[in-house]
């Protein structure tokens, strides 16, 4: 079971979720420690996305509980999760192609100036702050005034990640951050993820890519058929063991939860 | 001042780069085309470039400018407001109805705007909550508004004698007619709302990528309803302007308002897929269409050719959108 030594920023306990007759999660438990990169691996349909959508407030779990920052939380919308300090970088990145980089970074968090009910956008302040946000993470982009349409896949990912980090968030959830990227761009995004950990951010990352998970993470949780079937410290596991867990080849293993 | 030189050099380079970008020209097609039309007709017809005629063009274009701004708000959400063919008529009939029964100008105008805005709100609600295509909903609204206008007016035009509306139609501040001034105010307010408020950004985001906007917590349904409410409100304003200008309230549907408002928006470089556009573009588009029709009339071209000219210009301009960045 997830230990309660106070260093966990997120604890998921026996969370279940079904959609009609389809059981997406049947009692999944895991935890993420403060300041670590926690990875979730598993096959398609194992329930990874459903699990993080429960954490991010997209889905409300049918059963079980989620403890975030020591408090039991029940988010009924992504906005609530965001206000509590959980930022999610969705697989589709939630960037609007036709808007500029600064407009995307400040989408629904616009800086305004004005008196009373009449307020206008402070475009200059948002552009300036956007430059700061990107340069702090060493992200190189021609101009914050460029439309997102003009960016490469890796640059988009970087913009989406820096938006998630820019708001005093306590946990950043990423769904397949490099799935759509080439080798070189994946490498850049991995560097960015490691830099975030150095800055003290806690990250929860879904990935298909075992090599990447072994390179990046501190803790790995393996999901299969709607359950978390094992947890390992990254330093103490191998790709072969992860494959066995994902496919269910070592079903008879006595300690399914691993140390955490 | 070396700093100034550096800045000037940088600005010059940036301007050069923009001028070589076909997207720069495509986005401003309406403004350049408007200038071209003015120059060409100025050469072809000695009467075109007179102060009196240019004033007439601006005055004739005022109603279309207001409708084009409204249509822009619908189109930028990846929608379209077909009811603009009849809601100005309905608003005009409302004015005639109330004024004809001694209800007073203020009440007449308020009711006209209220009815048209309600049409927009209801269309927006059915589109966003009901999940029905914009095209179908506003097509239905077009028909309903047409029928209501006929019902309220009993199918007959009524003359509207009203000192306020007469002043609105004929008065001016210096050379600028009130109707032009009103159109200018609408255009400026439309621009500020779209590009200098949080709502404007949410509008463009909803039109550009509804899913992304929703993920970021934007209330996309409310944005859609508000966009159509604005379109409806401006249809009401246009209805009042129409009544003032014509001096009567006529239940006849103005299909050319609908076609020309869509044409202005397309000419103005607003993407029909939503998410990008301007207010200045459609305003220039509306003036371009008006100037084109005026010029053709001055040259003695049969008015039967005018729809042909408008349609051709719109289709040509749609090609330019391919070059948008």
Automatic annotation (TrEMBL), chain A:
<dbReference type="InterPro" id="IPR050107">
    <property type="entry name" value="ABC_carbohydrate_import_ATPase"/>
</dbReference>
<dbReference type="InterPro" id="IPR003593">
    <property type="entry name" value="AAA+_ATPase"/>
</dbReference>
<dbReference type="Pfam" id="PF00005">
    <property type="entry name" value="ABC_tran"/>
</dbReference>
<protein>
    <recommendedName>
        <fullName>ABC transporter domain-containing protein</fullName>
    </recommendedName>
</protein>
<dbReference type="InterPro" id="IPR003439">
    <property type="entry name" value="ABC_transporter-like_ATP-bd"/>
</dbReference>
<dbReference type="GO" id="GO:0005524">
    <property type="term" value="F:ATP binding"/>
</dbReference>
<keyword id="KW-0547">Nucleotide-binding</keyword>
<keyword id="KW-0067">ATP-binding</keyword>
<feature type="domain" description="ABC transporter">
    <location>
        <begin position="10"/>
        <end position="250"/>
    </location>
</feature>
<dbReference type="InterPro" id="IPR017871">
    <property type="entry name" value="ABC_transporter-like_CS"/>
</dbReference>
<dbReference type="InterPro" id="IPR027417">
    <property type="entry name" value="P-loop_NTPase"/>
</dbReference>
<dbReference type="GO" id="GO:0016887">
    <property type="term" value="F:ATP hydrolysis activity"/>
</dbReference>
């Amino acid at each position: 079971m997830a230990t309660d030594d106070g260093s966990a920023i997120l604890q998921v306990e026996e969370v279940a979720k079904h959609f009609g007759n389809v059981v997406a999660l049947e009692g999944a438990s895991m935890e993420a420690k403060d300041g670590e990169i926690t990875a979730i691996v598993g096959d398609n349909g194992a329930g990874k996305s459903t699990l993080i959508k429960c954490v991010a407030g997209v889905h409300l779990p049918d059963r079980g509980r989620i403890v975030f920052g020591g408090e039991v939380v029940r988010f009924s919308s992504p906005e609530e999760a965001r206000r509590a300090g959980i930022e999610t970088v969705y697989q589709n990145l939630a960037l609007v192609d036709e808007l500029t980089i600064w407009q995307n970074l400040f989408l629904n968090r616009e800086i305004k100036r004005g008196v009373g009910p009449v307020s206008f956008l402070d475009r200059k302040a948002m552009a300036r702050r956007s430059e700061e946000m990107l340069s702090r993470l060493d992200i190189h982009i021609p101009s914050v005034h460029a439309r997102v349409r003009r960016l490469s896949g890796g640059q988009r990912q970087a913009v989406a990640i820096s938006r998630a980090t820019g708001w005093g968030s306590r946990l950043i959830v990423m769904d397949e951050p490099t799935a759509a990227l080439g080798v070189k761009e994946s490498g850049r995004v991995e560097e960015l993820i490691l830099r975030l950990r150095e800055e003290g951010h806690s990250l929860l990352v879904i990935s298909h890519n075992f090599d990447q998970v072994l390179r990046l993470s501190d803790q790995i949780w393996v999901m299969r058929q709607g359950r978390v079937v094992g947890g390992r410290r990254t330093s103490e596991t191998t790709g072969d063991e992860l494959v066995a867990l994902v496919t269910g080849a070592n079903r008879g293993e006595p300690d399914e939860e691993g140390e955490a | 001042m070396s700093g100034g030189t550096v800045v000037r050099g940088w600005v010059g380079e940036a301007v050069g780069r923009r001028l070589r970008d076909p997207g720069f020209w495509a986005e401003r097609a309406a403004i350049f085309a408007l200038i071209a039309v003015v120059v060409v007709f100025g050469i072809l017809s000695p009467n075109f470039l007179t102060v009196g005629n240019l004033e007439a063009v601006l005055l004739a274009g005022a109603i279309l400018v207001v409708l084009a701004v409204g249509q822009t708000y619908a189109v930028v959400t990846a929608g379209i407001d077909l009811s603009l063919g009849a809601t100005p008529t309905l608003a005009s009939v409302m004015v005639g109805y109330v004024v004809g029964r001694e209800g007073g100008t203020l009440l007449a105008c308020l009711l006209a705007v209220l009815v048209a805005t309600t049409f927009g709100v209801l269309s927006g609600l059915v589109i966003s909550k009901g999940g029905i295509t914009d095209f179908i909903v506003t097509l239905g609204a077009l028909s309903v508004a047409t029928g209501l206008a006929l019902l309220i007016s009993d199918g007959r035009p009524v003359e509207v004698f009203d000192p306020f509306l007469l002043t609105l139609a004929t008065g001016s501040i210096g050379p600028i007619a009130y109707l032009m001034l009103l159109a200018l105010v609408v255009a400026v307010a439309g621009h500020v709302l779209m590009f200098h408020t949080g709502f404007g950004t949410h509008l463009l985001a909803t039109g550009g990528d509804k899913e992304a906007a929703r993920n970021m917590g934007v209330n996309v349904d409310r944005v859609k309803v508000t966009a159509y409410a604005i379109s409806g409100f401006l249809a009401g304003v246009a209805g009042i302007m129409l009544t003032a200008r014509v001096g009567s309230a006529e239940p006849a549907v103005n299909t050319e308002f609908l076609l020309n408002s869509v044409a202005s928006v397309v000419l103005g470089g607003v993407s029909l897929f939503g998410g990008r556009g301007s207010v200045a573009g459609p305003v220039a588009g509306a003036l371009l269409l008006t100037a084109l029709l005026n010029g053709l009339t001055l040259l003695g071209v049969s008015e039967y050719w005018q729809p042909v000219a408008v349609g051709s210009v719109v289709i040509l301009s749609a090609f330019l959108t391919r070059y948008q960045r």
